Structure formats: structure tokens, C-alpha cells
Amino acid sequence: MINNPSHPKKGHLKSRDCKFTKAGIEYIDYKQTEILERFVNDQGKILPRRVTGNSARHQRQLSTAVKRARFMALIPYVTENLR
Predict the structure, then answer these.
(1) Which domains are seen in the chain, by residue range?
(2) By its UniProt entry, which InterPro entries does this protein fall under (predicted)?
(3) CA-CA to 7 of 20 to 30 Å: which in 31, 46, 67, 77?
(4) 46 in helix, strand or coil?
(5) pTM, entire model
């Protein structure tokens, strides 16, 4: 097996940049449903930090915002095809 420095080692994920930090967003608002829906999969589950590349601070804010938007019926808990 040839060592390829550009290929990540097994078990190591490529580091991603936080989209909210890059955009300079301080607070994630639950009323911005377009943004929140990008971080929810087709089943309605919140995507984990290792997939989205969010910072820990913004991932906590994101999960709280999604839960608040669900409670206020701005986004669904589950998709229509799972009901």
C-alpha cells in the first residue's frame, strides 16, 4: 500500500469550516426556517456536528433553534412520507 499524504487516514475525518462562523452569524434564530431546514435530514433528524462541520457553540444554538421551530410548528417533527 502506497502512502498518499492527500488521502485522510482511516478514522480521521476531513475538517470542515463552520458556515455560521464564516458568515459572521452570532445567533441562530428559530424563525429562519430556510437555514434550519438545511441542517435537518429527510426524516426530520438534526444532522450531527461531524457531518455539518459546525462549531460546538453553533451546533448547540442550531439544535435549540430547530426544537423551538418545531414547537412553534414552523418546521415539522417528521416528514409527510413517514407519518
Answers:
(1) 19-68 (4.10.640.10)
(2) Ribosomal_bS18, Ribosomal_bS18_CS, Ribosomal_bS18_sf
(3) 46
(4) strand
(5) 0.78
Q: How far is Cα 64 from Cα 27, in angstroms, rounded to an integer? A: 11
pLDDT average, residue stretch 1-22 = 73
Q: Are 59 and 52 in contact (CB under 8 A)?
A: yes
Q: Are 15 and 54 in contact (CB under 8 A)?
A: no
What the block records as the C-alpha cell of 43 is 426524516
Closest among 52, 42, 46, 54 to 79, alpha carbons compared = 42
**SS3 at position 66:** helix
Closest to 21 (Cα-Cα) out of 50, 54, 67? 54
81 DSSP assignment: G
